[in-house]
Amino acid sequence: MSTSNERKEVTIYDIAEALHISAATVSRGLKNHPAVKQATKDKIFAQAERMGYRFNTFARNLRTKRTYTIGVIVPRLNSMFMSDVIAGMEKVSNEAGYELIISQSLETMEKEMKNAVTMFNNRVDGLLVSLAYTTTGIDHFKRFMDKNIPLIFFDRVFEHPNCPNIVINNHKAAYELTSYLIHQGAKRIMHIAGNLNRNVYSQRFKGYKDALSDNGIQFQEDWLMVKNLSAEDGIHTAKHICALTERPDAIFVANDTCAVACMQELKRNGVHVPKDMLVAGFNNDPIATVVEPNLTTVNYRGHEMGEMAAKTLINLLNGSSEQHTAATIVLRHELIIRDSTQRE
Fold this sequence. Notes:
alpha/beta, 6-stranded parallel β-sheet, 4-stranded parallel β-sheet, 12 helices, 12 strands, about 15% strand, disordered N terminus
């Protein structure tokens, strides 16, 4: 039984009557159909908002067998790089009429597995994933592949014949950065890596090692420290370095957060950067230009990576590219030289 103050659901016919146009024009306008003039669309949307019209996405979803949602699983949301990636994804997805559902694995495979189940149960049309530190395989994404739900890995990826990867050339970037440090006179270069299960960190380590080798410097095991690359790790690393009898003359850290914390702790312990020790990071986070001296790093555009991942996924959903011809898309990077590696 309806109460007197219960309001009737607004329909396209109510909007049509208020604007003195046909219901068909209202329907096409709400779907952003190109046959309807923009001025008319603007009037339709404004009237729909005024009248409290609710778009019947449920009916549309039943008709098209899509939910118009894209799942995104990331390790953490607390970096500027990942914020830029999400912004790029959002831009492309929203323009194509999709919404993002975002979750964090918090760097564990266990949580990533739960996230995958949640995304599957929410019937996302496709999934974009950057893998957690501890992920050792991708069986938990098999249900998506079995249902031909497009799955794309970005930044931290896993090689699979059915899943496109969006990356930068981490090996080349690390090789260029290490070579630059050597040309600045460094001979004992320590590398602070992330979890070497992940492509980004294993490739950066390999690029660093290859640059040493090609410049006639023998890599030593105690020059490698594997960390979670947090600010706390940066502080602990600096304390470890200060306690060494033979200190490194340069440090290449696999992200900026850890590099900056390390550099600040070194300075607190009387180490002059860059005179005593060169320090370089990776990612070009805003913190790199705030710290003194400014941090040498590698820039790659998170926004561009997010846009490319979303575009590739939407192309798969629209059938304009083949799921089984999965390609690796390599985006540009650039070495940014700043004061932390430039000796006077």
